[in-house]
Structures are given as C-alpha cells and as structure tokens.
Amino acid sequence: MILLQLIYSGIALGMIYAVIAFGYQLTFATSGTLNFGQGEALMLGALVGLTLVGLGVNYWVMIPIVCIFGFAQGALVERVGVRPAIKTRSEFGWIMATIALGIIFKNVAENIWGRDDLRFPSPLPEAPIQVLGANVLPMELLVVFGALGMMILVEIFNRKSIYGKAFVATSNDRDAAGLMGINTGMVITFSYALSSLTAAFAGVLVAPLTLTGATMGAVLGLKAFAVAIIGGLSSGMGVVVGGLILGIAETTTGFYLSTGYKDVPGLVLLLLVLTFKPAGLFGKTAIKKV
C-alpha cells in the first residue's frame, strides 16, 4: 500500500506540474514564446492568497481574487517584456525579458513577505482519508480535480466562446488571423494573462501542501517546463501525461532510492525525449513548406 500512497502523492504533484505546463502551451500557441517567469506567477499567487487568508478572506472567496491578480500580472509581463521583443523580431529578447521580470518579482516578494517560508493554512481537514486501502489527503484530491477543472474550463472557453475562437485562429496561423480582422496583439496579451492566471491558481492549490515563500516557484516552474517538453508544447493531453509521469517518478524515486535522486528520472526522460522525439511524446512535428 506504500506504493499506492506514493502514486497518489505523485498524481497530485504531477497535476500541479501539468497546470503550469498548460500555461506554457497557451503562450507558445499564440506567439511562439514562453513565459519563463511562470514559476514566479505561481509564487505570487500563493503569497497573495496567503495574505488574503491572513486578513480573514475565506479560502474559496480568495481563489477568484488571486486569479484576477494572476491575469493582470500576466498581461503586464506580455506588455513590458514580450511585446517589444515580438515587434522588433528579437529572437532572444523575450527569453531574457521574462527571466528578468521573474527575478524582479522574486526580489519584490522577498522584500514584502521576507525570505522565510510560511505555512499556508489548509481549507480542508488535514486528516487523511482511505482510498483503495491507501491514505490520501483531502487537499491532494482538491489539487487533482482543481487542476483538471481549470484546464477543462480553458478548453471549453477556447472551443465555445467567440474570444476563444479568436485565440484558436491566432494559434493556427497568426498572419491569417490578422488578415481576418483579429487583433492578434490582444490575443497574445490574453494568452499571457490566462497563462499566469492558471499558474496563480496552481499556487493557491499547492500552497497548503507545502511551504509558501519567494523561492517556491523556481523549481516548480522549471519542472513544469520539462513536463511541457516531455508531453509536447502542442498537446493538452501530453502535459497531463507528462505531469503524471514526472510526479510519480519523483515520489517513488525519493522513497525507494533517495530524495537526492528524485529529480533524476524526470531529467533522464527529458533527455531521451529531446533525443528521440523532440516534439514531445504527444506533440506534432512541424512541417515546413518550401
């Protein structure tokens, strides 16, 4: 039953990776760029959520407020760091800009909330419940279903709303979408805003399971990027599968071998995918017409 319990914990961890990786997909689809400050968006969401809870705001009321904050933060990143690079067609400008903004956000967080890790109170009972003979924390179940719910809502939005269809059209062919009258610049801004919203939401989901602090986002953001590469930057199913693989690999390796080796299986898988299937396990290889 220990293995089953490790798998449960791995699934919860993997879904956090998946929802952050899903944010990478959103920006890559519309602009071919990535927000390397995704981890810091998660961190800010968690810390803002902790502050609101400390002020007496109910956890469930706090979540939409944090999502609005994440939305605004993502739009700011696109306007300040990404749009100038896209306009000047700078190949690496957006990479350095998003990394720089991530460092700035981290430093601001350290000055506001301090360098010490803080405990985020759990909104659910902390006593584990039995599922198929193994213990599961109620918060872990919330993480899994909350992350899946967020990704499903975004997919429904993209398929059913007129704004979502503009998003899909831009991701399919940005130049053609522009010729059809779609404001592609606004769509790219929206994709960054939505990307940071999902990261901030992931932050308040994972915070009660771990310690909350200014450095919590760096590792999560990097591992989520690995998940996006493993699963494929063009596949929603890919990030879920990639997240589950990485999460379960980490928890089982950490228990059966050593916590010092828990990052190794995911990195080995990343290297193998980059070597044999660069587009990701579920990604589509781009075909260039000449």
Labels describing this entry:
290 residues, mainly alpha, two-stranded antiparallel ribbon, two-stranded antiparallel sheet, 11 helices, 72% helix
Question: What's the gist of this structure?
Answer:
This protein has 290 residues and is mostly helical. Helices cover 72% and strands 3% of the residues.
What does this structure look like?
It is a multi-pass membrane protein. The protein has 290 residues and is mainly alpha-helical. The chain has one domain (1-224). It is 72% helix and 3% strand. Helix 9 (216-231) packs across helix 10 (236-256). It is globular. The model has no long low-confidence stretch (mean pLDDT 87).
Secondary-structure topology with pairs:
Layout: H1 2-31, H2 38-54, H3 59-87, H4 93-113, E1 118-119, E2 129-131, E3 134-136, H5 138-160, H6 162-172, H7 174-179, H8 184-206, E4 211-212, H9 216-231, H10 236-256, H11 264-276
Antiparallel strand pairs: 1-4, 2-3
Helix pairs in contact: 1-5, 1-6, 1-8, 1-9, 1-10, 2-3, 2-4, 2-8, 2-9, 3-4, 3-8, 5-6, 5-8, 6-8, 9-10, 9-11
Major sheet details: 2 strands, antiparallel
Q: Let me know the number of strands.
A: 4
The best one-word shape is globular
As for the number of domains, it is: 1
Kindly estimate the percentage of residues that lie in beta strands according to DSSP: under 5%
How far is it from the N-terminal to the C-terminal residue, by CA?
Answer: 56 Å
Our count of helices gives 11
Query: For the largest beta sheet, what order do the strands appear in spatially?
Result: 1-4
N-to-C series of helices and strands: HHHHEEEHHHHEHHH
Residue share in helices? over 70%
List unreliable stretches of 5+ residues. none
Please state the CA-atom Rg, rounded to the nearest Å: 19 Å
Structural class: mainly alpha
